[in-house]
Amino acid sequence: MKTALKEAQKSFLDDEVPIGAVIVKDGRVVSRAHNTRNKTQNAINHAEILAISKACKKQKSWRLEDCDIYVTLEPCPMCAGAILNARIKNLYFGAYDKTSKTNLLEAIMQDDRLNHKTQVVGGILQEECAKLLTDFFVAKRNSKK
Known about the structure:
Layout: H1 2-13, E1 20-25, E2 28-34, H2 37-40, H3 47-59, E3 67-73, H4 77-85, E4 90-95, H5 104-109, E5 119-121, H6 126-143
Parallel strand pairs: 3-4, 4-5
Antiparallel strand pairs: 1-2, 1-3
């Protein structure tokens, strides 16, 4: 998760929402990425999507069955779908998305219609991950004053 936090800090410095993702296989980092939506003006350039794309290219397969993903913030529905479609074994995330009133991530990950299940563990380095996001949005608000 510390490597994912380093990726998130890159987003912060680029004036992007600071979210980082790292994909690991057999204890080794396969890929890493951070948000680049504003920089690229591409709605799908979330950290998770970019990390999955890089990992698939490196592994020469869309199936990342023996891989785990570490993300600094609870993934959105798009990213949760990509994680499932890539057949990633485990999802570890830091901060919880407080904007959701329902546990959408759990609903997506455990949907009986899907033939793959990703195990989910949240709250890893939660305080550090949440602080980076809070600091970013406080700085954004203060720059508008």
